[in-house]
Amino acid sequence: MASGSGDEEGNTEGVSWRLIGPASELSKKRCRLMYSSLGYDSDVCLFYVKGEFFAMDARCSHSGGPLCEGDIEEADGVLQVFCPWHDYDFDLRTGKSGTSLQQQVYEVKLEDGNVYVKHSSHLSLLPFPANQKS
Ligand code: FES
To answer: Mind telling me which Gene3D superfamilies this protein's record contains (predicted)?
Structure first.
């Protein structure tokens, strides 16, 4: 079991590629929220725009607005998400904003029809049981 590339997934410490799911399914929605095993502040958005996936911290670096619910616009070939709370813009590819804020972005890769995101924690499309408030 430990043969070959042992750290593809399953490693909870350090940055590694996290399997998210099949691209055919994930591309059906413009944005999915991926829960982080580190908790709410570390959740990540997986955007699918113009045939490409982008991963970005889900909570706006301004005041924590839900970027998954933001509008996406293209200007001069640059795709941006606009935070629904105060309309700050963030470049989907770099995380840069016209406001000097910077949103953390993550590498995404497609392999054998599956989407992977490079992240320091486990990512899941469903909440982790430990994070659920009952
Ligand atoms: S919380 Fe996102 S712009 Fe203010």
So the answer is: Rieske [2Fe-2S] iron-sulphur domain
